[in-house]
Specification:
- The structure is a single chain.
- Helices cover about 40% and strands about 20% of the residues.
- By secondary structure, it is of the alpha+beta class.
- It has a single domain, classed as Peroxisomal Thiolase, Chain A, domain 1.
- Bound molecules: coenzyme A.
Length: about 500
Amino acid sequence: MALQRTPPARRAQQDAGITAGISGMAMDLPPYRVSLEDWCGWTGASWDKISAVVGHAFRVPGPAQSVYTMAANAALKLIRQNDVDPARIGLLALGTESSNDNSAGSIIIKGMLDQALDDHGLPRLSQHCEVPEIKHACLGGVYALKNAVRHCLLEDSAAIVICSDLALYARGSSGEPTQGAGAVALLVERNPALASLELGHAGRASDYRISDFRKPLMDADRRPRSNLHYPVFNGRFSTYCYLDQVRNALSHLYQRRGVSPAEWLQELRAVFFHRPYRRMPQSAFALVRLCAEALSHGDGSRLLKRLCPETGVALDEALGEMRERHELPKHDADGPGAWNPFRRTNELMKGLRATPEFEELVLHPLRWGDDNMMQLGNIYSGALFAWLAAGLEEAARAGESWAGDEILLIGYGSGDAAEALPMRVCDGWKEAAGRIHFNKALEPAYDLSRSQYEALHAGLAVDDLPSPPGFRVESIGTKTGQDFQDEGIEYYAYSA
Ligand SMILES: CC(C)(COP(=O)(O)OP(=O)(O)OC[C@H]1O[C@@H](n2cnc3c(N)ncnc32)[C@H](O)[C@@H]1OP(=O)(O)O)[C@@H](O)C(=O)NCCC(=O)NCCS
């Protein structure tokens, strides 16, 4: 394997010991919760399956909540919990795939934050702050984080990254139990407190995959789609796209790091994935483990040589499938529903799931924060970082010694692209993890009845639902005149 050359600018930063990464995290969720056990009772779905594959609950936004209110709540908590000087922030980046303004992005959140900072007697965000919105499905937040790290290294200022999304699916669709809503904010700076990111060691991959999960603005007649927030998606196909691109991003990481995949994975303290539902990261990490075995051992490892005959799969065919690049067949009218680039590897994954090694090889590195994540549902761009926050908080509470060790973050965005980010845990991580307050962000939570859920899902107001403090949508503009227009523009109020 050819040695990678380090660019001179980065070498100078490394020599000077300058790193950048995450110093603080905070989360905001709508307070309205649907228990998936109740939902199974309402719909006849199997609770055994949903609790094993999806989770235990998800959140639904009320009419007063939007991507922007959740984002501003999370960012304000971040600033206050970490005593951040807002004037130091040179970049406020929003990662989202469900924001409802097609023109402006994080500037809306900046305005909201300044209003609340005034109320709290704190300085405003700097006027000289960049305010981009970054979109690529659930990966927008990861791209925003990488942007923020570059910003901190090159410009020596701090950044806030906010991932905020509403994951809404049509009632009755296979995605319905995987809904969710929430925002996660990250403080990114030089010499971080939680975990540093060496961008030159990260892996990345992308391929145009047409229709696995998209949100077109127009219908087939070029008219605005009636519900822009519902995705057009193909569940099984989207799963294979996820598996394939995660594998590709990790192959890039191994190559850039010059590491032996199987050995390197074994040394990681914890692994966090983009998490559309509970089973997805388990399947993906099982695939990652098997592919690492295929890449690290020319003629197949002991594990593969055992699993192949047990599952009736030919070893050479499985090795080919795990090592080669997978191209999507040409699009046909019926779509790529039958595409499965990992037919043989799937059998091995099932075989691995049935072995005692599955616990240690796959579940063990994914266990940090897993229980708490069962409460959230899919929060798209924030899902990976919510899991990281839950995991760091749980590990700190458990008295783990992670300082100096590596953890791995895997981001994924449908369409599709993946990122493999190795992060090194910093010396002061426990104190910083103690300021995340993930558990506190789960409160308050009001369990919805079936009729309340159905009304909120349809965007209707529900009487008697308590509304929490923080930002809320107070009104929506209706003016369409020649002299002044504000139709559809949200106005916000803040209560401490
Ligand atoms: C997740 C999703 C694909 C599941 O759809 P589904 O139609 O219920 O899928 P299946 O019936 O095949 O079941 C899914 C899994 O549950 C397993 N399962 C079924 N019953 C089970 C039970 N009682 N206990 C445990 N597992 C069970 C199946 O074996 C299957 O496992 P596998 O994925 O390892 O093969 C669906 O919720 C979806 O489409 N979600 C939205 C798409 C999405 O989020 N994509 C990812 C974008 S990043």
